[in-house]
Amino acid sequence: MSMHGIPDAERTSASVDLFGETFCITAATCSGRRRVNQDCFGWIASSGGDLTGTMVGSAMETGSCGLPDFLLAIVCDGLGGMRDGDKASRSVVDGMVAWAASGGLASGDPALGIVRAATAIEGRLRSDYPRSGTTMSIVAAVGGRWTSAHLGDSRCYAVHRDRIWRTRDHSRVERLFRDGRITEDQMNTHP
Description:
There is one protein chain. The chain is an alpha+beta fold and 191 residues long. It is 25% helix and 34% strand. Strands 3, 4, 5, 6, 7, 8 and 9 form a 7-stranded antiparallel sheet that branches. A two-stranded antiparallel sheet has the order 1-2. Helix 1 crosses helix 2. The N terminus is likely disordered.
């Protein structure tokens, strides 16, 4: 879906030069049928030792960081029907961006680091907003090696000239599709 087709969408777009390539980061979010928009997204990058990034509603401080080149992009969506989903999604985005800014991606195995950071953030989330929850999709690159992780029905995509790859979300609708009980087109309208 084009973000231009979303009437009340909050949008951000930026280009980042990393690993000899230029990457375009684009995100759009809107409240849809909910009273409160529970989506939150953010990104952070270190390129040539300089830190840049943004989050919904605010830009982060930039400057020299001395970290190796990396990129982290994340989107979270508070679980519908649960209390404080907007706060949960914002807490996870803020926590993961702060973790990356402090050198978390640069130390050791990025995939293991993401799991450990998310687990620590979940502990704080359970304390601050005990009846909340959020999905999470995250993509990280360090030294040209890409890692993705996700929870719930948010997805990560890799778009190539000739194909699109996506993660499989953790939902009943995805299971029905994988089992051959509904088509990919039916996934978009399944109740």
